[in-house]
Each structure stands twice: as structure tokens, then as C-alpha cells.
């Protein structure tokens, strides 16, 4: 079965590299399905639930891509890519419980099918599976995975607690995104170079690249949630607003003191329903905060590109730059 690469790589012109990534991802996908299976049929249904639903597979592809800076044929590269996706899947089980989300990747979320406790335990099981695999990749890979695991938990914890009294809400939000999303994407980029034996000096730039791309990826989601139609993104606009989830455009409203902005921020803070949502979306779409949010998002993508300027010119570097540009150009 041939696996499609994430749309972020559509701008890559090196067909040999793309072919190699597609071939490796086919094997990685097989291993992901194997790693999320369980001998007990009841547990298997839970642990493989989201893996079978598919997904962008952005993290394992980044691992495979950066491995081409070294020996991409090393079999540990495939295991590292699997670890990145299984770790991501584990976080989704937990996130969906925290957010009480009803759907994920077009299927009912695990907690909607089996309840909160089972969903949390299944996420824990997948974290354990990822830890088992990464333990075979060496001490450094294991330590990096453990550190990112801590960041993932802290990100969720800080999001749940909210900003402190003296903390800027936007700074707090960016920190949450860095931990919850950026940390694992950073490791995905870094670990490919590590296990492939690439020059050790490449790891820090790749880590910075991944972290900043992760932040940009989530920020563009904030814009898409408000700006895009269902035909463009495949999602119903305003889901974050309805759920009361803070997003960058809404947080930026606090910087505008005109009466209309203050009233709009207050209306959002008081909670929205499906009846009031359309007018709020219409107001936000023409508000300066949308351009401001896009400028900040583009800034993070550009800073990701700057982080890898030190890498030698290669098809991998060109692909990473294309990846960064495509992240902020997407509509869904």
C-alpha cells in the first residue's frame, strides 16, 4: 500500500527524495498499525482506534526527511518515526478527554465510545508502547523522549490552569503551544538526524525548526477556524469559539480598545451558541486581528527557516523550507 505524504511536501521538487519518503512511510505505516495492535481483542479495538483512522503523519515524515542528512537506510530511523506517531496518538486520546471532543479524524473519539477512564488508560498504553520502542534506540534518544513527554504533560497542565495573574495571555498561549505541539514536532525533526548518524551539529537547528513549525501549525489552525469555510477546510468554522477555547485572534482583541472590539471580546468571553456564532465570525473576519494573527504566524514559520540556515544546502534543506512555507499557506 502506497502512503500519501503530507500536503506540506507538495512543493518539493526532488522526486527521488519524495519516492524514498513514500517507500519508507509505507513501511512505517505498517509498523504503526502493528505497534498499536494488542492480542486481547477488546484492548486492540481501543489501542488501534485512532491509528486506523489515519491522519497527516506529519511527525514520522519529518523524522524520515531529516534522516536523509545521514544514513537514511538505518533501520532505527523507521523505529524512530513510529515512536513519533505513536506518542502523538497517545496525546490525542488524552487531549480529547480534556476537551471533551466528540470526533477525531472523522470517527468518534475514544472517550465517546468507551468512556473517559478507558480513553486515558489507552493513551497511557500507547505512551508505554512508544517508550518500549524508543528504549532500543539508545540512551540519548530515550532521554530526549522522556524530556518531551514531560513537556507534553506540562503543556496540558499549563493550558488547564491558564495564565497567571502577572502573565501576558498571548505569551502563555505560545508557551502552551510550544510544549503541547512544538516539543514533539521538534523531537521528530531532531531524532531523524540523531539515529541516522548525521552531523551532531544539525540537531539543535532541527529542534528549533520543529518547535517553531509546531507553533506556526497551531496558530494557522486558529486562523482557519475563523476564516475558512467548510468547503475549504472540511471543518465547521468557529468550533474553538463555541468551545470557549482561546485562540490567537481572540487574544489579540485585548490590544484593541475601541468600543466595537471591547464589545466583541466581551461577547466571546461570555460564551457563544450556534445562534450568535455567525455574527461573531463575520465580525472577526473583517477585524484587524486576523491580519495581525497571520503576521505573527508567518513570523514563526520564517523563524523556523532561519533556524536551519546553518544546514548545508541540500534537497533535505529545500524540503524543510518548502514544508515551513506550506504549513502557513494551508486552508485546512
Automatic annotation (TrEMBL):
Stated family: Belongs to the FPP/GGPP synthase family.
Record-level GO BP terms: isoprenoid biosynthetic process
Gene3D superfamilies linked: Farnesyl Diphosphate Synthase
PANTHER family: ALL TRANS-POLYPRENYL-DIPHOSPHATE SYNTHASE PDSS1, GERANYLGERANYL PYROPHOSPHATE SYNTHASE
Alphabetical list of CDD domains matching this protein: Trans_IPPS_HT
Protein name: Polyprenyl synthetase family protein
Highest taxon in the source lineage: Bacteria
Keyword terms of this UniProt record: Magnesium, Metal-binding, Transferase
MF annotations from Gene Ontology: metal ion binding; prenyltransferase activity
CC cofactor: Mg(2+)
Amino acid at each position: 500500500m502506497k502512503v500519501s505524504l503530507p500536503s506540506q511536501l507538495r512543493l518539493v521538487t526532488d522526486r527521488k527524495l519524495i519516492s524514498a519518503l513514500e517507500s519508507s512511510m509505507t513501511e512505517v505505516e505498517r509498523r504503526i498499525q502493528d505497534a498499536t495492535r494488542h492480542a486481547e481483542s477488546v484492548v486492540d479495538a481501543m489501542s488501534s482506534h485512532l491509528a486506523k483512522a489515519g491522519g497527516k503523519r506529519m511527525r514520522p515524515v519529518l523524522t524520515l526527511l531529516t534522516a536523509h542528512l545521514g544514513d537514511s537506510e538505518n533501520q532505527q530511523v523507521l523505529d524512530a518515526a513510529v515512536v513519533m506517531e505513536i506518542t502523538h496518538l497517545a496525546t490525542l486520546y488524552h487531549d480529547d478527554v480534556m476537551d471533551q471532543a466528540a470526533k477525531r479524524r472523522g470517527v468518534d473519539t475514544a472517550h465517546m465510545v468507551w468512556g473517559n477512564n478507558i480513553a486515558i488508560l489507552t493513551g497511557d498504553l500507547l505512551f508505554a508502547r512508544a517508550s518500549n520502542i524508543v528504549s532500543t534506540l539508545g540512551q540519548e534518544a530515550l532521554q530526549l523522549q522522556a524530556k518531551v513527554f514531560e513537556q507534553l504533560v506540562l503543556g496540558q497542565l499549563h493550558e488547564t490552569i491558564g495564565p497567571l495573574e502577572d502573565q501576558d495571555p498571548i505569551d502563555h498561549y505560545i508557551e502552551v503551544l510550544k510544549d503541547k505541539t512544538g516539543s514533539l514536532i521538534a523531537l521528530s525533526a531532531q531524532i531523524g538526524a540523531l539515529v541516522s548518524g548525521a552531523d551532531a551539529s544539525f540537531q539543535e537547528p532541527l529542534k528549533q525548526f520543529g518547535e517553531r513549525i509546531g507553533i506556526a501549525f497551531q496558530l494557522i489552525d486558529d486562523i482557519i477556524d475563523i476564516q475558512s469555510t467548510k468547503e475549504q477546510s472540511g471543518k465547521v468554522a468557529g468550533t474553538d469559539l463555541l468551545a470557549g477555547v482561546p485562540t490567537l485572534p481572540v487574544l489579540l482583541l485585548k490590544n484593541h480598545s475601541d468600543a466595537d472590539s471591547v464589545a466583541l471580546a466581551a461577547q466571546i468571553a461570555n460564551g457563544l451558541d450556534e445562534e450568535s456564532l455567525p455574527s461573531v465570525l463575520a465580525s472577526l473576519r473583517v477585524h484587524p486581528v486576523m491580519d495581525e494573527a497571520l503576521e505573527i504566524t508567518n513570523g514563526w514559520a520564517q523563524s523556523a527557516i532561519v533556524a536551519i540556515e546553518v544546514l548545508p544546502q541540500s534537497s533535505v534543506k529545500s524540503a524543510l523550507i518548502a514544508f515551513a512555507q506550506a504549513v502557513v499557506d494551508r486552508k485546512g
